[in-house]
């Protein structure tokens, strides 16, 4: 460990997600949130009082320029992820960058290039990887208990969950997409991680907008702006092929006429065993003595939580100069797949992934 001093962090974005980061970082003794900013300054000032944060900046540029900060958390709307992450890296800051890493593939490439030049830690906080059940299943995968994982199914299907109709959430030029980039990015990341991080090589996908344009399927998250617009999908489906011969199927939606909301779910199909995470429950599947055998997994009573584990990992990577588990290239992988799904939907063809970067 190169330093015992707390890592001083500035939070860009004082909304719901930014506030979560503030709450979590207070539980990490090696971290200290010392600055905050938001486009709505009164909210930043409110958060500073709530969390005892010393400095409030009127804009992100002034916060990034603070020479006393070691790192920043970028927790703003998708369109600003790349510009702010690149600016922070160029200013010599480590970065925790909310998902999706970028609004599109071109912006994702800019972040990768900036990270390589800066030599700083950039981490994408995909908290599903850090859930206790995910870690338990990952342990079994690494032990070989599932054998050859040849297929996985990932889904997160909401029946009535379009967020903030007419706001940046539902505008392609501000969000980069609908449920695919909002929910799908989580499911892709977790699935590829549990499958062993094989390299995606091709994608076939389709997207649909059957409800949002008609102002149906509206959820409770966010405040609608009825003078805005809806030009993103409300359902996406895809099949991803990996370089080891395995496949991954994905289904995500904000709105769909199904029986009930489908909680986030990943199913792994292996030659020796299977696994599933769904709605905070986990299970392993096997066949013993020619009979089905199921093993229920449980979260330890003293579990500190995924976001605390994730924040501690970020701080440790900064202190030790190591790459985070959810590195810039995991974010790029997700953007590469998302871009291919949207392209496949437009053309009706399979898209081969180009890894030249």
Question: How does this structure look, described?
Answer:
The protein has 2 domains: 7-127, NAD(P)-binding Rossmann-like Domain (Rossmann fold, 3-Layer(aba) Sandwich); 129-306 and 335-352, 2-Layer Sandwich (Dihydrodipicolinate Reductase, domain 2), CATH 3.30.360.10. Helices cover 33% and strands 25% of the residues. The chain contains 10 helices and 15 strands. The strands form 2 sheets. Strands 14-13-12-11-7-10-9-8-15 form a 9-stranded mixed sheet. Strand 9 (235-242) and strand 10 (247-253) form a beta hairpin. Helix 4 packs parallel to helix 5, helix 5 runs antiparallel to helix 10 and helix 8 (179-194) packs across helix 10 (328-347). It is globular and about 65 Å long. The two termini are 32 Å apart. This is Oxidoreductase. One of its GO terms (molecular function) is nucleotide binding.
Query: What is the CA–CA distance across the termini?
Result: 32 Å
Main sheet? 9 strands, mixed
Class computed from helices, strands and strand pairing:
alpha/beta
Number of helices: 10
Residues in helix, % = 25-40%
Give the CATH superfamily of the largest domain: Dihydrodipicolinate Reductase, domain 2
Query: What fold name stands as the CATH topology of the largest domain?
Result: Dihydrodipicolinate Reductase, domain 2
The CATH architecture of the largest domain comes to 2-Layer Sandwich
Please identify the top-level CATH class of the largest domain.
Alpha Beta
Task: Write down the Rg.
Answer: 20 Å
Domain Gfo/Idh/MocA-like oxidoreductase N-terminal: 7-124
Domain GFO/IDH/MocA-like oxidoreductase: 137-274
Pfam families: GFO_IDH_MocA, GFO_IDH_MocA_C3
GO molecular function: nucleotide binding
């Amino acid at each position: 460990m190169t330093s015992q001093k707390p890592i001083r962090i500035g939070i860009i974005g004082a909304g719901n997600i930014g506030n979560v980061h503030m709450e979590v970082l207070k539980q990490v003794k090696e971290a200290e949130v010392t600055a905050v900013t938001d486009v709505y300054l009164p909210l930043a000032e409110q958060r500073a009082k709530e969390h005892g944060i010393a400095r409030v900046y009127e804009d992100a540029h002034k916060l990034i320029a603070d020479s006393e900060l070691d790192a920043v958390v970028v927790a703003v709307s998708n369109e600003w992820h790349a510009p702010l992450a690149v600016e922070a890296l160029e200013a010599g800051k480590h970065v925790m960058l909310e998902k999706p890493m970028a609004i599109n593939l071109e912006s994702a490439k800019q972040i990768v290039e900036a990270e390589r030049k800066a030599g700083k830690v950039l981490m994408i906080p995909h908290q599903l990887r850090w859930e206790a059940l995910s870690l338990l299943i990952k342990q079994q995968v690494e032990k070989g208990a599932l054998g050859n994982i040849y297929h996985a199914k990932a889904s997160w299907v909401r029946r009535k969950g379009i967020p903030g109709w007419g706001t940046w959430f539902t505008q392609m030029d501000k969000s980069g997409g609908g449920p695919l980039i909002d929910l799908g990015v989580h499911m892709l990341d977790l699935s590829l991680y549990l499958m062993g991080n094989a390299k995606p090589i091709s994608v076939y996908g389709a997207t649909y907008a059957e409800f949002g344009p008609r102002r149906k399927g509206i959820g409770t998250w966010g405040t609608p702006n009825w003078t805005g617009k809806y030009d993103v999908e409300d359902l996406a489906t895809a099949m991803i092929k990996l370089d080891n011969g395995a496949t991954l199927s994905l289904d995500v939606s904000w709105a769909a006429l199904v029986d009930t909301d489908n909680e986030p779910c990943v199913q792994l199909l292996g030659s020796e065993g299977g696994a599933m995470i769904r709605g905070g429950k986990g299970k392993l599947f096997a066949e013993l003595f020619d009979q089905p055998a199921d093993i229920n997994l449980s979260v330890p009573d003293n579990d500190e939580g995924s976001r605390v584990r994730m924040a501690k990992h970020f701080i440790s990577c900064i202190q030790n100069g190591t790459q985070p588990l959810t590195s810039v290239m995991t974010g790029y992988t997700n953007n590469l797949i998302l871009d291919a799904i949207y392209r496949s939907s437009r053309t009706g063809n399979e898209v081969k992934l180009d890894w030249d970067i």
